[in-house]
Specification:
It contains 15 helices and 2 strands. By secondary structure, the protein is an all-alpha fold. It has one domain. It has a two-stranded antiparallel ribbon with strand order 1-2. A hairpin with a 2-residue loop joins strand 1 and strand 2.
């Protein structure tokens, strides 16, 4: 049987996983620009995020049920994790992000949110005593300098404090997402966690809007963008189907092919996508100093991620050489020489969802 040296499973995974990861980043990155058009037309951020999450939850409902394969006990046992994931890590993050893009540029708001890995490091240091590496501290410092430049603080420009606080709230929610996604003992497939969390988040937002806690207002007027006007359901479907449901599916698939470490680096392309769609749909472009600050923020996050310990390699156990038959003890009395290989489902869920 002939073999091709370069066509290994790893190369095939990168060859197929990389385009999927870039597609997920592009899909996730467009949500803010579509939402800003709705908000400018009279939608509240609460209405925009509620519509987005309901559409995504309904699209992912059938794949979520198929992924669970009747194991409804997993949902009952992990109700707390699903609630935290759906209400805080997903719903609150998107709501705070939409609140931020209502008053500041889309790309800048997402860059602030993307400092979440630094917040995770601080949390692990304070909570668990896991001291960050020197490289992670250097990366955090670079990102902080970039954040100062990006917000035009040094030039004395007017700073939208409310927008920054909303973006920081989104950053805390994203950090919660990373912490919860790293939990490998839930037994929930990544798609089931995402789908059930989105459904719970949609129900929670609807209840909050019904009782008046969350302001909900919308209009059926056409929505204006840089290229022209479109019916209101176009941005709603773009946010819910493409920027959420499809983005999650692509992200989960690419993470399984690339591994969580490489996929997390490719996901940084979401910031570039947000800047691109902010320009295409809204005409938003950062000035030179903000662009330099944004580059430093991304560089700092990359250095922080490089400072993280690499995940353990999954090594397939090899069978030990069999001793002579005469010297073999009874099989029932002999413990296994190597632990059994992990099930494929456990390997996939240990990687966690992309985002």
């Amino acid at each position: 049987m002939s073999t091709v040296a370069h066509d290994t499973p790893i190369h095939r995974g990168v060859r197929w996983g990389l385009p999927l990861a870039i597609g997920a980043a592009l899909a996730f990155g467009m949500s803010g620009a579509w939402a800003r058009g709705l908000i400018d037309a009279g939608w509240t951020p609460g209405a925009a995020v509620t519509a987005r999450i309901w559409v995504a939850a309904l699209v992912l409902l059938v794949p979520t049920v198929l992924t669970l394969r009747g194991r409804w006990g997993l949902l009952r046992r992990n109700l707390g994790v699903i609630a935290a994931y759906g209400l805080l890590a997903v719903t609150a993050t998107q709501l705070f992000y939409f609140q931020a893009v209502a008053v500041m540029d889309v790309g800048l708001a997402l860059l602030i949110e993307y400092t979440a890995p630094i917040a995770v490091i601080l949390w692990l240091w304070i909570r668990r005593g896991e001291k960050p590496t020197r490289r992670s501290l250097v990366g955090a410092g670079i990102a902080f300098i970039g954040l100062v430049l990006m917000l035009d603080i040094v030039t004395g420009a007017e700073v939208n404090v409310a927008g920054i606080l909303w973006a920081l709230g989104a950053m805390v929610g994203a950090a919660t997402y990373f912490v919860l996604s790293a939990k490998g003992d839930t037994g929930l497939p990544p798609l089931a966690l995402a789908g059930s969390g989105l459904l719970l988040g949609a129900i929670g937002l609807t209840i909050a809007g019904a009782v008046g806690v969350l302001p909900i207002a919308w209009t059926t007027d056409d929505i204006a963008y840089r290229f022209g006007s479109v019916p209101w359901f176009v941005p709603v479907l773009a946010m819910g189907v493409v920027a959420t449901a499809v983005a999650y599916l692509l992200g989960i698939a690419s993470t399984r092919m690339l591994g969580s470490r490489l996929a997390s680096f490719v996901a940084l392309a979401e910031v570039v996508a947000a800047l691109l769609f902010g320009w295409l749909l809204l005409g938003q472009l950062p000035d030179l100093l903000q662009a330099l600050g944004g580059a430093l923020v991304l560089a700092g996050v990359v250095v922080v991620k490089l400072g993280e310990p690499a995940p353990p390699e999954l090594v397939e156990p090899t069978p030990a050489a069999s001793p002579p038959l005469a010297a073999s003890p009874p099989l029932a009395a002999s413990p296994p020489l190597v632990p059994p290989a992990p099930a494929a489902e456990e390997i996939s869920r240990s990687e966690g969802p992309d985002r």
